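re: that chain from earlier
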Amino acid sequence: MTKKTIIMTFISIFIIVLGIGIYNFQRQETSPLHPDSENHTVIDESSEQDETSETKDETNEKPSTPAAELSKEFSMAIQNTIKFFSGNNTKIVAIGDSLTQGVGDSTEQGGFVGILDNHINQNKKIATFENLGKRGNQTTHLIKRIEDPDIKKSLKNTDIVLITIGANDIMQVAKENFADMTYDIFAAERINYEGRLHTILSTITNLNPDASIYLIGFYNPFQQYFEHIKELDMIVDDWNNTSKQVADVYGATFIPTKDLFTNEEANLFADDHFHPNKNGYQLIAERILDYLVVD
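^ sequence. v structure.
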């Protein structure tokens, strides 16, 4: 199969999947549970919900062996983090796109940010989390948002910054070029993404030179369907490598997530087949904890 044929095959299937995703996004946009607001929200401290109170949506999720085995390791990571934060009122700001916001988490607890908050603060308030994630954000949007006075204030007064950004940049390239989608188009836009990411990290670093910044990498949501299309993995790997290189320039820590979503036996995606579900977000939360404790 030639590269052109592979790309055209991907285009046909991608349009179908993308259509499903856009439909789900639009339906969520009109839902009162997902207000489209620029205002940032603080995630309130809440106790861990009992497993028997899971919502009807959660019961539709297939049991995930990795998620089930995660409990012991996750518990150990939580304990190590609690010891790491002990004696400090650590402030953590999470900013970025829908992955930070927690879209796809059927428990409506805020994805990986909510998981970190609930578990780290389950016995004693030792960290304050502020979720500034906004669905649909690209790097261009985030550059503008970090100039907002309220967001500037949050970034200036935090100890840790968690960032997810760039996935919508990749999706935008796909939507704008679906009739003639090639690897070279993504490679060219990656250079522009690199420049915008420099702007984001330099701005945050200048606002708060003492903050520890963590840039969370991309996963490949289409791996489960199009494993044979190697260009997809190449695109994700290239953009991840660029993200890490830029993070290194500013002393930020790059956190990879691509490997977490390669298990075909695990159900880690929400109904839109793009965002993580509760299990997927838990894997991301554990990975973040590993990096927090190391630092």
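Residues 3-29 form the longest helix (27 residues).
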